[in-house]
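Incident log, support desk, overnight shift.

02:14 A customer reports that sequence design results differ from what the structure should imply. Their input is reproduced verbatim below. On-call engineer (initials T.W.) acknowledged and began investigating.
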């Protein structure tokens, strides 16, 4: 009994440390809360069982002489317990990583499908963004910001939407963005562009190739540790190129309820 309790406790600790230490979670919020509550409850149950086991052992020691009874553990029992423990531990680790992977893939597929629906239904607005970017006036950028707001609110499940475009700074390719905040200046009508800071191992090479004239497809990326999701949709307009970036932080996975 004591071996069983200890094994279950160690398995719970393994899964908990794996999820908290690596900051990955394949479960939904409700499921995660349930598992944590169950694990904490099992700690109390394990403590009670340990005390009961000690009490039973003391009673046996008081009622019988161990030397006369010659009680010996069955051969191979400890080995089978160790093997079973490591098999279940390996299965638990595999479940956590597999659940995390499939959760992220499923989430990306759902968001990408919603984004495609919205963009396909508003191709005229994308053409307008291309024309406005080529002129580069204050009113044009303000109109692009309005189009961005409209597209971002067409579906309840759509994540944050950012318009990425490029320009030259001292003959160097630079990336700029139009996100949910637009620096309005109706009196002077001076637009100060905001730089888009790409990530070296995430999107820098992709954006450089696209804005240098290469033909690229949509890019899907996600990070394992902090659950960031990115979907880059390239748009080649008649006047200018730009990228629509859908991004979101997803704290919990998709397994469970």
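02:41 Re-run completed on a clean worker. Output:
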């Amino acid at each position: 009994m004591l071996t069983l309790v200890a094994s279950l406790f160690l398995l719970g600790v393994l899964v908990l440390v794996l999820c908290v230490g690596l900051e990955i979670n394949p479960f939904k919020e409700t499921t995660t809360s349930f598992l944590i509550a169950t694990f904490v409850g099992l700690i109390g149950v394990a403590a009670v069982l340990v005390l009961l086991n000690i009490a039973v052992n003391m009673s046996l020691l008081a009622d019988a002489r161990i030397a006369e009874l010659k009680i010996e553990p069955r051969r191979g029992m400890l080995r089978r317990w160790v093997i079973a423990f490591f098999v279940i531990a390996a299965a638990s680790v595999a479940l956590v990583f597999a659940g995390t992977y499939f959760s992220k893939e499923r989430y990306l597929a759902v968001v990408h499908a919603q984004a495609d629906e919205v963009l396909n239904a508003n191709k005229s607005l994308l053409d307008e963004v291309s024309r406005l970017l080529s002129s580069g006036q204050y009113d044009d950028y303000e109109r692009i910001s309005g189009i961005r707001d409209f597209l971002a609110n067409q579906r309840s499940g759509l994540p944050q939407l950012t318009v990425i475009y490029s320009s030259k700074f001292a003959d160097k390719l630079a990336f700029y963005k139009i996100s949910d905040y637009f620096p309005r200046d109706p009196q002077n009508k001076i637009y100060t562009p905001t730089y888009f800071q790409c990530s070296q191992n995430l999107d820098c090479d992709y954006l450089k190739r696209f804005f240098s004239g290469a033909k690229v497809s949509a890019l899907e990326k996600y990070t394992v540790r902090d659950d960031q999701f990115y979907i880059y949709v390239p748009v080649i307009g008649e006047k200018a190129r730009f990228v629509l970036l859908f991004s979101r932080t997803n704290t919990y996975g998709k397994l469970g309820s």
